[in-house]
Every structure is written in structure tokens, then in C-alpha cells.
């Protein structure tokens, strides 16, 4: 037992601050190091993350038993290897860019918290709303109305029809697809380049699901 190597007893994604350097934005761009996304964020782990962008709820389930929720205990594990101080996340489902920062290395939990904050604590601006065609504007209104009704129901009250909301959260833009699916990089650089005008190893595209 005394001769057991550290790598034999501690998984490569284990939480901690002693697993190699944390690359800054400058380090990353100079070295141009490809990043490996944590399997949970990539959607390839046996633990399937269920993350609701409207309320921040994060639980999980195992492919062998989809009907039993599992606590999300991996939130402190690094989001990427090598670890980095910043991740940039965009989505084809929305016009916003989420920047996740942590000087000691971005974790899975950091990603979830920042995405939830960006989509739940910011309203759609009038200028953003006006870029939508009428059909999608109506979809945002319906989604906001549904969220209002759900909030009243969760608070233990009965839904009282009210005037349609005049302000909308960013998650209302997402329609029915407001559940996190995965972060991807492979094959997405052309979209990243078209969207941001540049690419970098720490820019990922978020896919959403129902």
C-alpha cells in the first residue's frame, strides 16, 4: 500500500489545487494548449448532469437508473484539464457570451453558477428583443407568462391571471430548451469564429435540451 502511486488513488479529475499549473488567459493564448473538458460537462460521464438554467437546480442521474436522482457532488472538480482561470461560453440558442472566472481554476460548479446567474439575473434588453421576428417575440412572451405561473404555483399559491409581463429574463429567450446538455468544442470553431471574430482553446459552445 505504501508504494501506491498518487495517480492510482486519486482520479485525474479530483478536486484540489495541486494538479499542475492553472493557466491564465495569457498563458493559454501563448501556449495554444488544447483543453480537455470534464466528462460531466461534455456529457460523456456515467453521471448525467441535470441543470436547469431557470432556477439553477443541479442534480444528476445514472444511465443505469434514470428515475433516481443523484446528488451533484462533483461541483468542485476542475472544468478542464489543464485547469484555466477563465472559460468563455456561447450558445447557438442565444446571443450572449458567458465568462466564467476563477483564479484557482474554473470548476464545474463555477460554470453552473455563472450560467444560471447570466440567464436568470439579467433581463433581455429592448434592443435585443426587437431583433427577434414577431413569432419569436410572442414565444418569449408566452414563456415568461408560463414562468410567472410556475413561480406562483411553487410558492404555494394559486395562479391569478395577470397582465402579461413587460420584462423578460434571458432564459425566456431559450423557449422550451432551458436544460444544460453539454459543452462542445470539436467542429465548432467555424461557428465561434463567425460569432466572436476569433477562436481560442477556452471558448466552448453550450448545447441545450428539453
Can you describe this structure?
The structure is a single chain. 30% of the residues lie in helices and 22% in strands. It has 210 residues and is of the alpha+beta class. The strands form four sheets. Strands 9-8-11-10 form a four-stranded mixed β-sheet. A three-stranded antiparallel β-sheet has the order 3-4-5, with no helix packed on it. The protein has a two-stranded parallel ribbon with strand order 1-7. It is globular, with a radius of gyration of 19 Å. The relative contact order is 0.17. Mean pLDDT is 90; it is low at 1-9.
What is the secondary structure topology, with strand pairs?
Blueprint (H helix, E strand, L loop, with lengths): L5 H4 L12 E2 L1 H7 L4 E2 L1 H4 L4 E5 L6 E5 L2 E6 L9 E2 L1 E2 L1 E5 L6 E5 L6 H13 L5 H5 L3 H21 L24 E6 L4 H8 L6 E7 L1
Parallel strand pairs: 1-7, 8-11
Antiparallel strand pairs: 2-6, 3-4, 4-5, 8-9, 10-11
Radius of gyration: 19 Å
Which term fits the overall shape? globular
Strand order of the largest sheet: 9-8-11-10
Terminal CA distance: 47 Å
Mean pLDDT: 90
Count helical runs: 7
* Helix-strand pattern: HEHEHEEEEEEEHHHEHE
The amount of beta strand, in percent, is 15-25%
**Helix-strand makeup class:** alpha+beta
- The low-confidence parts are 1-9
Largest sheet: 4 strands, mixed
Helix content: 25-40%
Query: How many E-type strands?
Result: 11
Amino acid at each position: 500500500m505504501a508504494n501506491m502511486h498518487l495517480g492510482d488513488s486519486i482520479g485525474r479529475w479530483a478536486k484540489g489545487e495541486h494538479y499542475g499549473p492553472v493557466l491564465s488567459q495569457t498563458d493559454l493564448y501563448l501556449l495554444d494548449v488544447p483543453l480537455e473538458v470534464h466528462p460531466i460537462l461534455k456529457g460523456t460521464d456515467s453521471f448525467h448532469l441535470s441543470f436547469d438554467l431557470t432556477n439553477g437546480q443541479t442534480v444528476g442521474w445514472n444511465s443505469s437508473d434514470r428515475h433516481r436522482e443523484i446528488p451533484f457532488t462533483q461541483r468542485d472538480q476542475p472544468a478542464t484539464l489543464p485547469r484555466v482561470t477563465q472559460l468563455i461560453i456561447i450558445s447557438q440558442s442565444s446571443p450572449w457570451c458567458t465568462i466564467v472566472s476563477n483564479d484557482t481554476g474554473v470548476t464545474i460548479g463555477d460554470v453552473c453558477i455563472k450560467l444560471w446567474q447570466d440567464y436568470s439575473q439579467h433581463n433581455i434588453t429592448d434592443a435585443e428583443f426587437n431583433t427577434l421576428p414577431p413569432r419569436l417575440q410572442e414565444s418569449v412572451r408566452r414563456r415568461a407568462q408560463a414562468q410567472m405561473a410556475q413561480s406562483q404555483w411553487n410558492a404555494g399559491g394559486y395562479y391569478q391571471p395577470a397582465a402579461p409581463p413587460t420584462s423578460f429574463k434571458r432564459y425566456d429567450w431559450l423557449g422550451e430548451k432551458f436544460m444544460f446538455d453539454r459543452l462542445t468544442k470539436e467542429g465548432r470553431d467555424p461557428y465561434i469564429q463567425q460569432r466572436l471574430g476569433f477562436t481560442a482553446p477556452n471558448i466552448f459552445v453550450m448545447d441545450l435540451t428539453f
